[in-house]
Amino acid sequence: MNQSVSLTDLQSKFMAENKSMNIQVKLPKSVHQRLCCPVCRSKLALTNEQFECTNPPCATYFPVVEGIPILINESASVFSVNDFLNYESTTFNLKPKSKIKQVLENLIPRTDINVKSETNYKRFAELIQKQS
């Protein structure tokens, strides 16, 4: 499914459900003029209570929820426009992990540790000393 089509469908559904609400963007005009599309960096225009990219190949729509424009490039973000349209939680779960999860995570090697770095450093130092 095309991203812009799905966004448009979600926005249409949102607008239909909230017709009685008078949604006004809570940003001054000077800020409106500085907004750019998070997908292609083109200017945005406010149309039908949502922002639209002025670049015809992109033409992505961004909804306004409670006066706040939701400017998210879904292909490069952990968040989605749908999270905000459906008022879902966008915070990370920082609750303590169970003991079992902690033990399992400690058994799996971390990707940020270079297990051969100490050996490689010693070898590198020896090679430099031989060349000196």
Could you characterize the architecture of this molecule?
The protein is of the alpha+beta class. The protein has helices at residues 3-17, 29-34, 81-85, 99-107, 117-131; strands at 44-47, 50-53, 61-65, 68-69. It has a four-stranded antiparallel β-sheet.
State the gist of this model.
Helices cover 38% and strands 11% of the residues. The protein has 132 residues and is α+β, with helices and mostly antiparallel strands.
Main sheet summary = 4 strands, antiparallel
> Which percent range fits the helix content?
25-40%
Instruction: Supply the number of helical segments.
Output: 5
Count the beta strands. Answer: 4
Strands, helices and their partners?
Blueprint: H1 3-17, H2 29-34, E1 44-47, E2 50-53, E3 61-65, E4 68-69, H3 81-85, H4 99-107, H5 117-131
Antiparallel strand pairs: 1-2, 2-3, 3-4
Features:
132 residues, 38% helix, disordered N terminus, 4-stranded antiparallel beta sheet
